[in-house]
Specification:
- This protein is α/β, with parallel strands linked by helices and about 650 residues long.
- The protein is built from 19 helices and 18 strands.
- The protein folds into four domains: about 180 residues, 3-Layer(aba) Sandwich (Rossmann fold); about 40 residues; about 200 residues, Rossmann fold; about 120 residues.
- Helix content is about 45%, strand content about 20%.
- Helix 17 runs parallel beside helix 19.
Length: about 650
């Protein structure tokens, strides 16, 4: 669909890409990975056409549509949320006009065997398919479903976009791109401004409704759940793996191990040749051999080893005085801004050594409660810090508190104590401040670099109560692993505000959910919480759908009792509701059949003696999916029967 051929990109005569070639196929779900600065965002800009390569070409059919969400956008509009989102469908009228012209040409065609005739049919089919996807009768429903999925509530729809933060405006732009249903979606860190529930909704959308996707993200769980192919950019080259991100990590380790062996062998060869040259350089009888070795040395192409994986570097917080048994006690805590209740009647106690997560949609009070703990804002109720509590606080704006007049190295050297001072350069390297970067002044660093530096500084402070507000937003995956390991080894108390499920998994043993003005305690890890939450959401959704559909039919029945004969419009409305429910049954049934076929294939492999871990894992996942599919089928059938009965069938 899109072909990248011999791509070369240079910045200030320094190569970023060299002879890069790959193809994006229809329905590919691709993770584009690499260290910060490798060129991931640049590659997306080139694919979209915002940037031109130094040489090479991008081949794309004219009718292929591409949607692009950058990390940062200049947003300026003065419409409401719903009006701005409706702009996603502004090209519909053009397609309708084109379809009329195409159909007229079809009527006038005489040669039904010509290439032009078949091209015309193909174009009519393409335009018709796009119009069917964007069925005008479903536009408002699709807009509502998408906005709610991305975290908005109905009361937000008519509010001006100017009332929302940049993060929420980015959600509107994402909604517009998703609603356009492009052939290729290019998404650069789409989860940065989303909460856990919105990320899960986006995952489901990309899995089931999106066509081809090229995705840049530092969210490991998100990548694993969406992508099936991984393209790594490293040292100006690309490595293309037809596997998910987690499998890629294992295969990458094997590749680097091979590179290291080849590099070591080459270094030994170079050393031997150099030693021979030096030894016999001035002996006339060896002149020919020396010249031969010199030419041999000149022909050697140096083997490059990809960036060293320093994720094994382990950081440990310096020891701090022991706190009391209960570092935090919250009783009847509340916070309001004017008439707006952020949360109320919050009651919980955090024990020494507990690691807990604050989760929920943006704006529901997670960071607000953290500010209450830090004494930054007033509140109602009671909040008590335990004996001898020393808090280490990482705020979302922590980067702004750094001394910009000193260097990166001095920033860390000023807080490091003891043996850790001998490892400062290793630590800086792990957080991507290696080499000359450690001598940069803080004032010249980007926002993301300042955030990483602030995180290193916090890691070296002797504290016994850590509060981290979205700590992973600007960290790559290996750096997040270093931070996660450090927190796991930390023997104090931790509160983490985060939407990163992979980061929270195995780190926290209690989850506090913020929403609807309440703070609910959930015992267990993040996936235990999400499993319970998802089941609850599905049940509520099922009830909501049944109630809504039955209400619609009751309206029609009420109209029928007033007028003995249904109008044409009412008959059509009834038929549409029933048809939609019947279609849901068919889709659910087809899904069950498909999964049963997959189950049979896997059972056949297992019965033949194949029993590797990946096969067993796949079989376990199919069983789980089949159970869920059967439940969905039963619910859809029950819903259809209920509607049929109410409709008098």
């Amino acid at each position: 669909m899109i072909s990248i051929n011999n791509l070369n990109v240079e910045f200030s005569a320094k190569p970023l890409f060299s002879d890069v070639s790959f193809v994006i196929n229809p329905c590919d779900k691709i993770a584009l990975v690499g260290k910060n600065g490798a060129g991931k965002s640049t590659m997306l800009k080139i694919l979209y056409g915002l940037q031109s390569p130094t040489s090479g070409s991008i081949s794309k059919p004219n009718d292929v549509t591409v949607g692009y969400l950058p990390q940062q956008m200049k947003l300026s509009d003065d419409t409401s949320i719903i009006e701005e989102t409706r702009k996603a469908f502004k090209g519909r009228s053009d397609m309708e006009d084109e379809l009329k012209v195409l159909n007229q040409r079809l009527l006038e065609f005489a040669d039904f065997e010509s290439d032009e005739y078949y091209k015309l049919l193909d174009r009519i089919q393409t335009v018709s398919d796009r119009l069917n996807v964007d069925d005008i009768n479903n536009v408002d429903a699709e807009i509502e479903k998408t906005l709610i999925g991305l975290g908005f509530v109905r009361s937000d729809f008519n509010r001006p976009t100017s009332e929302f933060s940049g993060g929420w405006r980015m959600r509107v732009e994402l909604a517009k791109i998703l609603l356009q249903r492009p052939d290729v979606l290019l998404l650069d860190e789409p989860t940065n401004h989303l909460d856990i529930e919105s990320i899960q909704w986006l995952e489901q959308f990309l899995q089931t409704k999106a066509k081809a996707v090229v995705l840049v993200s530092h969210d490991r769980a998100f990548l694993d759940n969406v992508t099936k192919r991984t393209i790594e950019i490293s040292c100006g080259k690309i490595y293309d793996y037809k596997v998910s991100y987690s499998m890629f990590v294992k295969m990458r380790q094997e590749r680097i191990a091979q590179q290291l062996r080849a590099y070591e062998n080459q270094q030994k060869q170079i050393a031997d040749i150099t030693a021979f040259i030096e030894r016999f350089r001035y002996q006339a009888t060896k002149a020919i051999q020396v010249q031969s070795r010199i030419k041999q040395l000149e022909k050697i192409v140096p083997i490059e080893v990809d960036e060293v994986d320093n994720s094994r570097l382990r950081l440990k917080f310096p020891p701090a005085a022991r706190s009391g048994d209960f570092p935090l006690i919250v009783e009847n805590l509340g916070k309001m801004y004017g008439n707006h209740v952020v949360f109320q009647n919050a009651e919980f106690t955090i024990k020494r050594g507990e690691k807990v997560a604050f989760v929920g949609k943006n704006g529901e009070g997670k960071s607000t409660l953290v500010k209450c703990i830090m004494g930054e804002i007033p509140f109602s109720g009671h909040l008590k810090l335990g004996h001898n509590v020393k808090i280490g606080y990482f705020a979302q704006n922590q980067a702004q508190m750094l001394d910009e007049s000193i260097s990166v190295f001095d920033t860390i050297d000023n807080v490091a104590t003891g043996d850790i001072r001998t490892k400062i350069r290793d630590i800086l390297g792990a957080f991507m401040f290696g080499g000359e970067n450690s001598e940069k002044k803080v004032k010249v660093l980007s926002g993301g670099e300042k955030t990483r530096l602030a995180m290193i500084k916090l890691l070296l402070e002797p504290v016994n109560f850590l509060i981290l507000d979205e700590p992973t937003n600007h960290l790559d995956m290996r750096t997040k692993d270093i931070l996660k390991d450090a927190i796991k080894d930390f023997d104090g108390t931790v509160i983490v505000v985060s939407h990163d499920r992979e980061f929270l998994d195995g780190l926290v043993d209690k989850v506090y959910e913020f929403g609807g003005g309440k703070v609910k305690e959930n015992i267990g890890g993040i996936y235990d919480f999400l499993k319970r939450k998802n089941l609850s959401s599905l049940n509520e959704l099922e009830k909501s759908v049944k109630t809504q559909n039955n209400d619609e039919l009751r309206k029609i029945d009420s109209s029928e009792s007033t007028s003995k004969n249904l109008s044409y419009t009412e008959q059509k409305e009834r038929e549409k509701i029933l048809k939609r429910a019947e279609k849901s049954v068919k889709l659910a049934e087809d899904n069950v059949c498909r999964l049963e076929e997959e189950q049979a294939k896997l059972e056949s492999k297992l019965s033949s003696g194949q029993s590797d871990s990946e096969l067993l894992k796949a079989y376990s996942e199919i069983i789980k999916k089949l159970e869920e599919a059967m439940s969905e089928w039963e619910n859809a059938q029950e819903n259809f029967e209920s509607l049929s009965k109410n409709a008098g069938k």
